[in-house]
Amino acid sequence: MKFIRKRDKKQSLPPGTLTYVGEEQQRKDAVITVINYGKNTYEEKTIETIEESYSAITSDRQTWINITGLTDIKTIEKIGKELEIHPLLLEDIVNSEHRPKLEVNENHMLAIVKRLYYSEEEEELQNEQISIILSKNVVITFQEFAGDDFETIRKQIRHSVGGIRACGTDFLFYRLLDSVVDRYIIEVEELEDRLEELEEKIIDNPEQSLLHAIYQKKHDVVGCKKIVTPMKEVISQIQKSDFPYLTEQTKFFIKDIQDHMIDVTEKAETTRSMITGLIELYYSSVSYKMNEIMKVLTIVSTTFIPLTFIAGIYGMNFHRMPELHSKWGYPAVMGGMVLIAIGMFIYFRKKKWF
Amino acid sequence: MKFIRKRDKKQSLPPGTLTYVGEEQQRKDAVITVINYGKNTYEEKTIETIEESYSAITSDRQTWINITGLTDIKTIEKIGKELEIHPLLLEDIVNSEHRPKLEVNENHMLAIVKRLYYSEEEEELQNEQISIILSKNVVITFQEFAGDDFETIRKQIRHSVGGIRACGTDFLFYRLLDSVVDRYIIEVEELEDRLEELEEKIIDNPEQSLLHAIYQKKHDVVGCKKIVTPMKEVISQIQKSDFPYLTEQTKFFIKDIQDHMIDVTEKAETTRSMITGLIELYYSSVSYKMNEIMKVLTIVSTTFIPLTFIAGIYGMNFHRMPELHSKWGYPAVMGGMVLIAIGMFIYFRKKKWF
Amino acid sequence: MKFIRKRDKKQSLPPGTLTYVGEEQQRKDAVITVINYGKNTYEEKTIETIEESYSAITSDRQTWINITGLTDIKTIEKIGKELEIHPLLLEDIVNSEHRPKLEVNENHMLAIVKRLYYSEEEEELQNEQISIILSKNVVITFQEFAGDDFETIRKQIRHSVGGIRACGTDFLFYRLLDSVVDRYIIEVEELEDRLEELEEKIIDNPEQSLLHAIYQKKHDVVGCKKIVTPMKEVISQIQKSDFPYLTEQTKFFIKDIQDHMIDVTEKAETTRSMITGLIELYYSSVSYKMNEIMKVLTIVSTTFIPLTFIAGIYGMNFHRMPELHSKWGYPAVMGGMVLIAIGMFIYFRKKKWF
Amino acid sequence: MKFIRKRDKKQSLPPGTLTYVGEEQQRKDAVITVINYGKNTYEEKTIETIEESYSAITSDRQTWINITGLTDIKTIEKIGKELEIHPLLLEDIVNSEHRPKLEVNENHMLAIVKRLYYSEEEEELQNEQISIILSKNVVITFQEFAGDDFETIRKQIRHSVGGIRACGTDFLFYRLLDSVVDRYIIEVEELEDRLEELEEKIIDNPEQSLLHAIYQKKHDVVGCKKIVTPMKEVISQIQKSDFPYLTEQTKFFIKDIQDHMIDVTEKAETTRSMITGLIELYYSSVSYKMNEIMKVLTIVSTTFIPLTFIAGIYGMNFHRMPELHSKWGYPAVMGGMVLIAIGMFIYFRKKKWF
Amino acid sequence: MKFIRKRDKKQSLPPGTLTYVGEEQQRKDAVITVINYGKNTYEEKTIETIEESYSAITSDRQTWINITGLTDIKTIEKIGKELEIHPLLLEDIVNSEHRPKLEVNENHMLAIVKRLYYSEEEEELQNEQISIILSKNVVITFQEFAGDDFETIRKQIRHSVGGIRACGTDFLFYRLLDSVVDRYIIEVEELEDRLEELEEKIIDNPEQSLLHAIYQKKHDVVGCKKIVTPMKEVISQIQKSDFPYLTEQTKFFIKDIQDHMIDVTEKAETTRSMITGLIELYYSSVSYKMNEIMKVLTIVSTTFIPLTFIAGIYGMNFHRMPELHSKWGYPAVMGGMVLIAIGMFIYFRKKKWF
Ligand SMILES: [Mg+2]
Ligand SMILES: [Mg+2]
Ligand SMILES: [Mg+2]
Ligand SMILES: [Mg+2]
Ligand SMILES: [Mg+2]
Ligand SMILES: [Mg+2]
Ligand SMILES: [Mg+2]
Ligand SMILES: [Mg+2]
Ligand SMILES: [Mg+2]
Ligand SMILES: [Mg+2]
Ligand SMILES: [Mg+2]
Ligand SMILES: [Mg+2]
Ligand SMILES: [Mg+2]
Ligand SMILES: [Mg+2]
Ligand SMILES: [Mg+2]
Ligand SMILES: [Mg+2]
Ligand SMILES: [Mg+2]
Ligand SMILES: [Mg+2]
Ligand SMILES: [Mg+2]
Ligand SMILES: [Mg+2]
Ligand SMILES: [Mg+2]
Ligand SMILES: [Mg+2]
Ligand SMILES: [Mg+2]
Ligand SMILES: [Mg+2]
Ligand SMILES: [Mg+2]
Ligand SMILES: [Mg+2]
Ligand SMILES: [Mg+2]
Ligand SMILES: [Mg+2]
Ligand SMILES: [Mg+2]
Ligand SMILES: [Mg+2]
Ligand SMILES: [Mg+2]
Known about the structure:
The structure is a homopentamer.
Chain A lengths: L30 E7 L4 E6 L3 H4 L7 E7 L4 H11 L3 H8 L6 E4 L4 E11 L4 E12 L2 E6 L7 H8 L10 H36 L3 H33 L7 H66 L8 H4 L3 H22 L4
Parallel strand pairs in A: 3-7
Antiparallel strand pairs in A: 1-2, 1-3, 4-5, 5-6, 6-7
Helix pairs in contact in A: 5-6, 5-7, 6-7, 7-9
The site of one magnesium ion has 3 residues of chain A, from loops.
């Protein structure tokens, strides 16, 4: 089976045709992990086929199923069929370039969110799509790559810290979202720091490479904005929804995430205006340097051109030039030149040119 | 009959006077194709007169009538009369510069949309107006030119793929719209690619021709925006309408198109800010080059002007110039000049001028 | 009676004091034309006093009274009194600088609109205020100057073309508005053409006079925007009003005008961004030319300054300069100069300076 | 008693502490004028203590009390107590830097408005705070300084012109507001004229002092905007209020003021974009001049530098320079120089440099 | 216990984990002050443990508890538990970088606000987070640092001035907010003054250090905006809330704060456009100076280059140069040079170059 990656291939496909469009280059089997927990119980296992997980879902315990790898279309289709998720939603889950969005029906609440992270190799802010489904007694998470920010939460469940085990799956749902949003704050603040570093470098020496660096960071800023704006909307929709498996108590916690999202949105807006400021600063520094160059050129030219002219006068070969025969001709001319040079010096000082 | 093309001619015409205003230069007969399909039947034919098609419309099968060519005013008038479409709507269908819009009455839903395509000859994003009418058991499409993106859908009906044959005409209506919108994503992403190519060229050598190229692409960006914004509105109106021949099930699919439209709108907005970025980059590169020129001029002038002055001094013809008679005069002056040049070199290095 | 023209004079005047503020320099008598028509009848006459017209208004025919000339305050006051139009509305009708607006009471619908036209003498987009009153069986139009775009409509009534005679006065009201709005499209598109012409001239040779031309056209663009925005509002208010003498059928036609207004508004917005683009283009072209000048200056200076220095060296009068006595001194120096010039040439080529 | 002027002093003061913050330097007694009028009666007097005025307020006549001078805190406190105006509102009345606002309770309608006027001495648009209270049968106006635009209205009452005497106090209230707003139109149009004058000066000679003049006018523009925007809101609130002492008939007149406010707001917005245009024009003119300077420099340098080099060649002292001994050497070199100069001239012409 | 300061550390912490994130470097015990007052009673004390304060809260007197120092997590947790404040709200109270917000439940109204102050050492506008809780008969304030603007209010309670003692705690709540907002006006106006100072310096001599100063002040402006916008929202929410312990009478006073907030927001917006104006002014001044430099360079070069050329001509060593032998050759050439110089002078004057 040919591995479809380009979005272009999707035109006029029948709706609900699952197509992974992300950055993973090879098709891999999905890794499915199931965590079962209750007030006093805890069980964690990695399973082979999705069918094994269903036995685990009972009404007296909470179940968290985590699927890593969106290229395994078949497994995801099977999960979708079992849980009665509409094919169009499954299509959105595996379309890892989808905008954050919330979809609610009577049995499921699906939040498609984005994990932000800074890739040191590519020196770029990147994102991973994470889809979180909340249903009765079960939370299902879909991740693009291995490795995540959810490990802390797993530990808290494992060691019964922070009260997750005492609450329903809606509280787990909240904690997962909260963890995603907490990361936004960190990444946006680090972006601010990188922009401040850039500012110092520009003040030091405005090389053109720094302008390219600014434009590269602008990508991060814009990309960040594109995630943050719909995420704010998603959180606010969760808050306003009347999904039966989301308690009022948990909604109070969701409101706390809303506060964070307002904060992140403002910070993202700030980085945006920092970019504008950096571009202005770059040009100002370049024009300052240009100014310096012009001043040197003008001082040198303006000082020597008249002197050279005078030297030229006395280099003329006219037979009758009385000054040439005078004993004091040479020292007088040299003295005059020195006076002119001093006059220029005073003039430039007055103009504050140096 | 004189062929009216200029919009100007329309002033104070009685309302409902059909006037084609597009790019087709000659009047051609409209080509009418009829596809009849049901769960187990399929029939496709090209007909001469529109009357032939009506026998085909029955309540147990779906009918798709496609009319290509908007210059054949008479045929279109006839179709309008038969189907009881208001003359003002027919006027909009043949006015191929009309804004995308939705018109709903109790029997018809008319969507005037735009197919985006990139013309390789004119190196420009162009559009074709497509009007889609959904009625009971029938879908009628009007196209400006031959050739379209609907071929894939025709094949799927023909070979009974993707479930169109099992659904009503409202699902066909959805698939046609979806195919139009899918194309937007492709075109906008290719526009992004062309802008990125332009960026590389500017960094390489900022010729003024590239500025014109930017402004040309700006046309594409603006044109794209002008189509995408009302299209988003059209899709959203379809979603909110309560047209009796559009089922709730199909509306869920329309919601998927809405997601695409949000995505396209954002991407179009991105190309807009890319244009701004490119203009800034162009000017930055030009001013960088100017800077380089100034530096060369200043280094050369500042180095040689004082030296030339010194040479001028000893070219003066004064009778009493003791240095001229000195044995070491010439080498001493030459040495002094070298020292001055070295001093300049160190000064420029310190200033990071080269 | 002194002819009041300056708006300043209106401060603290009692409300309802009619004051013409437009461009007509002399007071003229108003010209009153009355057209009476029905399905099978047509009558047209120019009358002296407004009283004559009332006999014409009967319930079995439609009457269109057209008044040209807003300086004839007395006649207009008389009309106002007869038709029971509030003095404040009459004040707005003769205030030919009034913003487009709609005023509806139980008996009258008053639309104050603006006819756009391009004055070839003043090379400027200008407007004429037209007030249209719709009442039971009568339409009254007030114009500032003679000559209008309504002639086509008069002909259609006269020769019973386009169905006006078969409809009520509300349809005439629609046709008058439609004719005004159709003209907007023409004028805005011609404005676009003039801006494109300007663009070509700037690319050809960016003279400062062209910058002034841009700013002059900006006046047209802004003026156009100022008319178009409230007009869109007026049309939309007519559409939403529940004025008893405006039928639902005619409202469907008004909706068509609404489409045109959206189109015009967008086009006006486009001309606005064209102006911005032209200003940018002008500066780019100027800076390109500056760049060219700098390159020529630098190439000439950078080539000749070192050569002149060398010539200066051998123009010094030192007694001991062995090169001067050498047989090959002169040709060697000349050859060296040629080599330096060639080196410069290669350097500039590499820098892509010419 | 120390005269408090600085707003700073107001921090943490108990609410309702009256503090004048305007430009009047000395404390003066308030001047109180009372006008009593009815259909056939008219009486006007200046009184010493506010108590005298109350006897005048009767239900069969209208009373207009005008207080000039906001530094007389005591008198104003007394008026407030008598009329049962809330101390916080009195605080706003004497705070002459307050934003225009409307305050309505069951007995009073208080409009805090701003009179705009151009101060010839300070060459600046300034404003005076005017508070107008409408109550049953009485209008009270508070002014900051003597001298106002209400004189015309007083005359119309005195000589029974314009129908004020036949109407209630709400009509007087309308006339006062109308007079304030009429003045806005005049001032904004004069501001436009001053900006146009500035434009001509910049085109003539772009001195830096003109840039400062632009920034000064920008103050006027911004100040104007700050008054006009809340004023529009105030008028619209009056229109929408259901204050019992404001008749529907008068509200129709208020709607006329609303039209004026829309007009003023648009004009103020125009002046804003005129400022932007002027700044652009200034820079364009400066850069045009710079361009001119560069062209002169380049033409002179480029013409003479090569010629001077040639002269330098033949100024060298080599013993063997055959040209020097040739009879035609001198005229040949001079001729060559002339040819080079002509070549340059043709080159520059072709480049359209002069 | 390690002192957590970095926000980063908060990711995936269980909700309600109190973490101080502000600028205080060391952990200090909170200082708790309790003021008890009634119409005729007043008592003020500093207590050690929060439990002591509760005995003071009785229904016949008002209690104001002030806690200074947010690093003392334990004490604050204890207060939270006693007063039944949700842990998430406590988390916000100690998170001293929180956005201003209002939280209302049936027993408490919590306003998180920011005190603005100018730090002379850091030459920067800074803020302190102040949380104010209004409950039945009690107001609790949390401050970050010692020292505040509430001292005036304490004095007014102590000396029974301004009527606080006669009112309930909601009036105290209003007075505290009013005092915070009054300070905004002062700080924003002082910011305006500092920007005006900067303007004068730039006009005097546009050094690059001033550009950095502008960017520093921009921080203040942006920071100010970030506080003022949500504060306006907080005040408006208080106004619209139906919290039972906030009387209608006090709400009328809150409306007065709303007026102030509109004023502050506008002033903050003004400082924003002042920053833009300053940057423009800086560049204008720099380019003006550049212009001056170019003019001097061009005048000197253009004057002397042709003269030097002439001197070069007569410095050539041709044997046959008749002028050299002429008696009047030297004075004629010198005279010619003077004439050329005068011509240049006149040309430059005409061009208004000096
Ligand atoms: Mg599809
Ligand atoms: Mg991705
Ligand atoms: Mg992962
Ligand atoms: Mg959080
Ligand atoms: Mg930072
Ligand atoms: Mg919180
Ligand atoms: Mg028409
Ligand atoms: Mg087309
Ligand atoms: Mg086609
Ligand atoms: Mg699609
Ligand atoms: Mg790309
Ligand atoms: Mg989808
Ligand atoms: Mg008036
Ligand atoms: Mg006019
Ligand atoms: Mg006319
Ligand atoms: Mg039309
Ligand atoms: Mg065109
Ligand atoms: Mg139409
Ligand atoms: Mg106060
Ligand atoms: Mg004032
Ligand atoms: Mg006054
Ligand atoms: Mg008025
Ligand atoms: Mg004017
Ligand atoms: Mg303004
Ligand atoms: Mg009016
Ligand atoms: Mg947390
Ligand atoms: Mg802080
Ligand atoms: Mg404090
Ligand atoms: Mg206050
Ligand atoms: Mg000030
Ligand atoms: Mg107040």
